[in-house]
Write a structure and sequence with these properties.
Keywords: Membrane, Transmembrane, Transmembrane helix. This protein is mostly helical. It has helices at about 5-30, 35-40, 45-60, 70-85, 90-105; strands at about 60, 70. The longest helix is centred in the first third of the chain and has 29 residues, at about 5-30.
Length: about 110
C-alpha cells in the first residue's frame, strides 16, 4: 500500500470513528430511555470537564515546585463566569471570555 493510500485510509478511519462516537449515542438514545439515576449522574459531566479545563489554564505547572497562577487567565475568567451565571448563552460566554482575554493581552 502506498503512503498516500495509507494516509487517506487513516484520515477516513479517524473521521469515521469520530463521527460514530458523536452520532451513535444519539441514535441509541432515540430507541432507549435512561434511568433518572443515570441522567442525574451524567448531568455532572459538563461541569467536571469545564472545571478541569479551567484549572489547567489557571495554574502553571513547575516540576518539583508549587504551581503558579496565570493572572491573565484568572482575570479573564472572572467576567466570563459572571456572564455564564447571568446570561446562560454559550455564544455570549465565549465572546466575553475571548474579549476579556484580548483586552488583558493588550494591557499587559
Amino acid at each position: 500500500m502506498s503512503s498516500f493510500n495509507f494516509l487517506l485510509l487513516t484520515i477516513f478511519s479517524c473521521g469515521l470513528v469520530t463521527w460514530g462516537a458523536r452520532v451513535l449515542p444519539f441514535i441509541l438514545l432515540k430507541r432507549f430511555t435512561l434511568k433518572k439515576r443515570v441522567v442525574d449522574y451524567l448531568s455532572f459531566v459538563p461541569v467536571v470537564i469545564l472545571s478541569s479545563l479551567w484549572f489547567s489554564n489557571i495554574f502553571i505547572q513547575h516540576l518539583g515546585k508549587w504551581p503558579s497562577i496565570d493572572v491573565k487567565n484568572l482575570l479573564a475568567s472572572l467576567p466570563t463566569i459572571l456572564a455564564a451565571v447571568w446570561i446562560k448563552n454559550l455564544l455570549v460566554i465565549v465572546c466575553v471570555g475571548m474579549l476579556s482575554l484580548a483586552v488583558l493581552n493588550v494591557i499587559f
